[in-house]
Design brief:
The protein has 21 helices and 29 strands. It has 713 residues and is α+β, with helices and mostly antiparallel strands.
Length: 713
């Protein structure tokens, strides 16, 4: 429930409930939630989550729980898109279409559909169908050891008695005999199809198998071995590639049981009980709601020479949550900067957590909430988009502005900044803030609204002033009400401390309430206007609400963070030389930073200096760093310098972090092909096509290789 506090503050009251208030009571769920529970989330919902969901009493509570369910699994919770949810529903759709063919069972209900939905695409699939065995598929997966998973495992599916749905195979419950037609099970394993006697190690294996398996299972194992190959025979008793023998049957059964719970390991389901305890006695609306805002954006150059985009945003309302007598919210600002062709130059996100005491809440109730921040930017013309989200209530607001960052030495005036307050001795030794220029901290008025008793501080910058301008240039300040001149002032540029930053003060006591315009002009010696800046100004007739300002802090201007940010902007703009210099600078100052090393590696890769990429990234890998981008760039660099086996290893490590990715599988295929291993190359490319079927070049390559490797080619 949202309760309005003053003119701008909302909060949600949550009241604790005891678990004892809930009971299952044979609840019949509405069809929508029955479908979600028993079809859409059935393979990934944990027992705890299911228990809590069945205890909920209203559709609104169920909707909120489902929202939390997906949020807990969102790999990038600070972005609008939930990649996990999108991928999950893609898998359901794929399983329904792919595995439901030729069977009365819906594809998502089949064993193959179930594991596909839980685990995603296998990185390799082998299919077997001969008169001597039942149709079989073996799916190979990479696991994540950090989640207690096997690093590699395989799942075997078969058609029992040669017909029907493909069933999931268990070495312990089914045994090899279920993979072989009944009329083949009496095969004498000591008398193989060929006349050659069995090798001693196979006879030893047969004796070990007889100790733990029925004779028919042992017969079937050797039928698989002699008619198909050792890999399939081992798959019938072991779920872990590279491990074989009868001692693997029990560990494989345990592994397969754990695989069923792999989706549960990716989420901490303790939130479910917390949701149940705090869901409240009132309904809470989390519907996405747009709210208005006021904003100000200025491009300013700091004494180091760097340009910064500075902004303040004032949302119409601010909602906070109440929990255990504490008021809190979490805001997220997302910046998207594009050039005039629509190409992304910079993206950035910041979280702004707020925790308030009750006395602070009362102050904020009477104030307008302001959030300010800044980020460095290279010269050019851009479109700035800012999205501000309240992650607690899902309210959001946004704005878009055109911004121009001076290029070269051409004359250009910044926008005029009108402020009620400035601090001339603001020194942040370890940080900088928005609207800070050297020791001068400006507190802009977003609406340019003032009271008659206020002092107006007017700040702006002029870029490109040469020595003649600095000695002879004139600034003219004019206040208008309509077309009538109210007040004027002139100053020589030579009177200011430097020829870039200009700050003037004006008393507003003689101005009656109303709307005004302030104009600043740069005049030459002939009194000609060369530059002009204009801003609106309102004198209010009564006091207005105060300001609650949250100003984000940034590193000092000499921090390598800025070289890294600007280097990536240059790289995005295709300005490789500048990108290389900036990213090399950031890496040179902080060579232990993986982030800076990866930034430098990207620009090195763009100029194909892959040996240098390996040199700067290998120390991180040798130190045990685990990072998808690290492994991907090491893999690509190793491939380009001819270290193909190392490249494959790095690419496989990258896949273990993100799951199968078509681009990386294609690179693995290229490496194997260059090594002459056509079979593994085909495995990688077929796995890639399972993920993205519309790859005509890969399809053609696979077909060509299969033709070349077929008998009689």
């Amino acid at each position: 429930m949202k309760i309005k506090m003053g003119a701008s503050l909302l909060f949600i009251g949550l009241f604790a409930y005891s678990l004892s208030l809930y009971s299952m009571s044979n609840l019949e769920l509405p069809m929508k939630y029955e479908t979600w529970l028993k079809e859409e989330a059935i393979y990934i919902i944990t027992p705890k989550e299911k228990e809590v969901f069945l205890m909920l009493e209203s559709d609104n509570e169920r909707d909120l729980f489902i929202e939390q369910f997906w949020r807990q699994r969102d790999p990038t919770p600070n972005t609008p898109r939930n990649e996990f949810k999108d991928e999950h529903y893609r898998r359901i759709e794929y399983a329904t279409k792919k595995f439901g063919k030729g069977t009365p069972t819906k594809g998502w209900r089949t064993d193959r559909g179930r594991f596909y939905i839980m685990l995603g695409s296998p990185y390799h699939v082998e299919r077997f169908s001969t008169p001597d065995i039942n149709p079989i598929e073996v799916w190979y997966y990479h696991g994540n050891p950090k989640l207690g998973q096997a690093s590699n495992f395989r799942l075997l599916f078969f058609q029992r008695n040669g017909t029907g749905d493909f069933e999931h195979y268990s070495p312990a419950a089914d045994g090899p005999k279920s993979l072989v037609p009944f009329n083949q099970r009496t095969h004498e394993f000591f008398n193989p199809v060929s006349d050659a006697p069995p090798a001693p190690d196979l006879e030893n294996l047969a004796n070990k198998l007889m100790a733990v398996l029925e004779r028919r299972d042992v017969d079937a194992y050797f039928i698989l071995y002699y008619n198909v190959g050792l890999d399939l025979a081992d798959s019938s008793i072991s779920s872990i590639p590279g491990r074989s023998g009868p001692d693997q049957i029990i560990p494989s059964a345990i592994l397969l049981g754990e695989v069923e719970t792999y989706p549960h390991k990716k989420v901490n389901d303790d939130y479910a009980y917390e949701f149940l305890e705090n869901k409240g006695v009132v309904e809470v609306s989390y519907s996405v709601h747009y709210i208005g805002n006021r904003a100000k954006v200025s491009v300013l150059q700091d004494p180091s020479g760097l340009f910064f985009i500075n902004y303040i945003i004032v949302p119409e309302t601010l909602s906070v949550d109440l929990y255990e007598n504490k008021y809190f919210t979490n805001l997220k600002s997302s910046i998207h900067l594009t050039d005039l062709e629509g190409n992304t130059v910079y993206q950035g996100e910041r979280n702004v957590p707020l925790d308030l005491r009750k006395d602070e809440l009362k102050i904020l109730e009477k104030s307008a909430f302001h959030l300010s921040d800044s980020f460095p930017v290279v010269s050019g013309n851009y479109t700035l988009n800012l999205l501000l989200e309240n992650l607690v209530t899902k309210e959001f607001t946004s704005f878009e502005r055109y911004v121009s960052v001076p290029v070269g030495d051409s004359l250009q005036m910044s926008s005029l900044i009108l402020a009620r307050k400035v601090d001339r001795d603001s020194v942040y030794s370890q940080s900088t803030r928005a609207f800070q220029v050297g020791n001068l901290q400006i507190y802009p008025s977003v609406t340019n609204t003032f009271l008659g008793q206020d002092t107006l501080f007017l700040f702006f910058q002029i870029h490109g002033l040469d020595q003649t301008w600095k000695e002879e240039g004139i600034l003219a300040f004019t206040f208008y009400q309509g077309e009538r001149v109210i007040q004027t002032k002139r100053r020589n540029i030579s009177e200011y401390r430097n020829g870039r930053d200009f700050l003037e003060e004006f008393s507003l006591q003689d101005l009656s309430p109303g709307k005004y315009t302030v104009e600043v002009s740069l005049l030459d010696q002939e009194e000609r206007k060369r530059l002009t800046g204009i801003a609106g100004l309102t004198i209010a007739d009564q006091p207005f609400r105060g300001t609650w300002l949250v100003s984000q802090t940034n590193p000092p201007a000499d921090d390598p963070y800025y070289a890294y940010i600007l280097g990536n902007q240059y790289l995005n703009k295709g300005e490789i030389t500048q990108a290389h210099d900036a990213l090399a600078q950031a890496y040179g100052v902080a060579p232990d930073s993986l982030e800076y090393a990866l930034g430098y590696a990207r620009v090195l890769a763009s100029v194909r200096d892959f040996q240098r990429v390996r040199e700067i990234l290998l120390p991180f890998e040798q130190a045990g760093q685990e990072d998808f981008s690290l492994f991907f760039h090491l893999g690509r660099a190793s491939k380009e310098v001819g270290e193909l086996e190392a490249a494959i290893t790095y690419f496989q490590k990258a896949l273990s972090h993100r799951g199968n990715i078509a681009e990386i599988l294609n690179l693995i295929g290229e490496c194997y092909l260059q090594l002459g291993n056509v079979e593994e190359a085909l495995r990688a490319w077929e796995a890639s096509l399972e993920i993205v079927p519309e790859q005509e070049n890969i399809k053609n390559l696979v077909e060509q290789l299969k033709k070349k490797s077929s008998p009689g080619f």
